[in-house]
Design goal:
The protein has helices at 61-66, 138-146, and strands at 16-25, 32-45, 48-59, 69-77, 83-92, 95-106, 109-117, 122-130, 135-136, 158-165, 168-184, 187-198, 210-215, 222-228, 233-242, 251-253. With 256 residues, it is mainly beta. The protein has a 16-stranded mixed β-sheet that branches. A hairpin with a 2-residue loop joins strand 2 and strand 3 (48-59). The longest helix has 9 residues, at 138-146.
Length: 256
């Protein structure tokens, strides 16, 4: 399983919960579009102990009245942080879809069984093969970021990986830029700033298709994410958390 071993810089804590606000920006408008919650807990998979990394998203406000969305993404990890199984359950505008990815390893090769279905029919049932490097689903890619070591980072350092989606293998990578301050009201966050290169048609550009600001403390929590879409932007902002492994030292509250 060596291809999928992640750096052993485990910054996550079982019982952790992190909450986010999600916004969509069109022109001068930037309505709050939804809420997301990410948890990390002890679980089991096929009768064996596992860790469960879960994201739950739902729309809010005006977006909820126009196009209701409910998404649940699950990633199961083994004892060495190897990704074992992912699922995404999507309910959008009355349509329900399930994606499942099962991972297996042989030396440097990763095999992914991709199974997509609705309650009525099978949409995808195929195997994807990656000869080397890390392979995740979209949520697992954020877990990967939180395990990166920062001791010797320099601008331009890159961390490539592959994201499995349906029948596709999308080449992706984090590219470190520098340290940066993120302001949110009267609160500032000290962060590490990364570009995300995503080679997929849904994004308006491949290089720096998205950006992420990760809290510069021992938790490595993303505090802001911005994705450039074909129409406008999506932005995700850290809201609150509990049961973190370490104090959130990147957060600095300014006196009013």
């Amino acid at each position: 399983m060596q291809a999928q071993y992640l750096p052993q810089n485990m910054t996550l804590n079982h019982g952790e919960e992190v909450r986010y606000d999600v916004y969509f920006k069109w022109g001068i408008l930037m309505p709050r579009a939804g809420e997301a919650r990410i948890t990390f807990s002890q679980s089991s998979l096929n009768g064996q102990p596992a860790s469960l990394y879960r994201l739950i998203f739902h729309t809010t406000g005006i977006i909820e009245t126009v196009y209701k969305m409910r998404d649940t993404l699950d990633c199961y990890y083994g004892a060495n942080n190897e990704l074992l199984h992912c699922s995404k359950r999507t309910q959008e505008g009355g349509f329900y879809l399930i994606d499942e990815l099962a991972f297996s390893y042989s030396g440097e090769t990763t095999s992914v069984h991709s199974f997509r279905y609705t309650p009525e029919s099978t949409r995808i049932d195929t195997n994807l093969i990656v000869s080397s490097g890390h392979v995740f689903d979209m949520l697992g890619a954020t877990f990967f970021m939180r395990t990166l070591g920062w001791e010797n980072l320099t601008s331009g350092d890159s961390f490539p990986f592959t994201v499995a989606v349906g029948r596709d293998l999308i080449q992706t990578g984090y590219r470190y830029q520098n340290q940066a301050i993120v302001e949110r009201g009267n609160i500032k966050y000290r962060t590490r700033y990364f570009f995300i290169d995503i080679y997929d048609d849904v994004f308006s550009q491949s290089k720096a298709a998205a950006e992420v600001w990760v809290g510069d403390d021992e938790n490595h929590i993303p505090v802001k994410i911005r994705a450039k879409l074909k129409i406008g932007y999506a932005e995700v902002h850290y809201k609150s958390s509990n049961n973190l492994k370490k104090p959130l030292d990147c957060r600095v509250e300014l006196k009013k």
